[in-house]
Amino acid sequence: MADDQTLETLLDKQAIQENLMRYCRGVDRMDLALMKSTYWADGTDDHGRFVGNAHDWCDEAVRAKGKLISSNHHVSNVYTEVDGDFARRESMFLVVTIYKQHGSAMFLGGRYRDLCEKRDGSWKVLHRVCVWDWNREIKADAGWHLMSAPELSNWGQFSPNDPIHQDWHSSPRTNAAASGRLDLSVAGADAP
């Protein structure tokens, strides 16, 4: 039987994990309010090209929305050490970003080094440092034709138009061009 302290630590670690997932969802959907909700207002962020107030970082990140087709943060190997009302969290990430202008994809690998703090029962990031490990640009042709992707489907978009923000029981399909994907002209050409 687990004691109260063990249960509290497990609940804290779950809340800290959910904080990280909310950040990823927020930045991938360019949902400014959701991103900011994961940092304390007096928190800081060091993203290399940006060092300063964490909420200002969120504003900066969302300004890139017009340049992007999509952004996908994949996070794994999350290790958290809880020490009272503070927690050290290391998370490995892989970010895949597709740019409109260049037609290229950036693959970025690194780690978030987060100092999280619990205030009034809520865990948020107090200080984040992005540790860069690797980066690759890939000039790639879209492979939608390989899977016979139709023009009308469930195309990922930024908030509030993404299917994740629509009715989960029934929502209309979206147009590829509306999502910034203009590369479907060869769709079906090589499909089996």
Radius of gyration: 19 Å
User: What fraction strand?
Assistant: 35-45%
Overall outline: globular
Query: What are the segments in which pLDDT stays under 50 over at least 5 consecutive residues?
Result: 186-192
Q: State the end-to-end distance.
A: 56 Å
Oligomer: single chain
- Helix/strand order: HHEEHEEEEEE
Major sheet: arrangement of strands: 2-1-6-5-4-3
Largest sheet entry: 6 strands, mixed
Structural class: alpha+beta
Helix content: 10-25%
Description:
The protein has 192 residues and is α+β, with helices and mostly antiparallel strands. It is built from three helices and eight strands, in the order H-H-E-E-H-E-E-E-E-E-E.
Draw up the topology in text.
Layout: H1 4-29, H2 32-36, E1 39-46, E2 51-53, H3 54-62, E3 68-83, E4 86-99, E5 104-119, E6 122-139, E7 152-153, E8 174-175
Parallel strand pairs: 1-6
Antiparallel strand pairs: 1-2, 3-4, 4-5, 5-6, 7-8
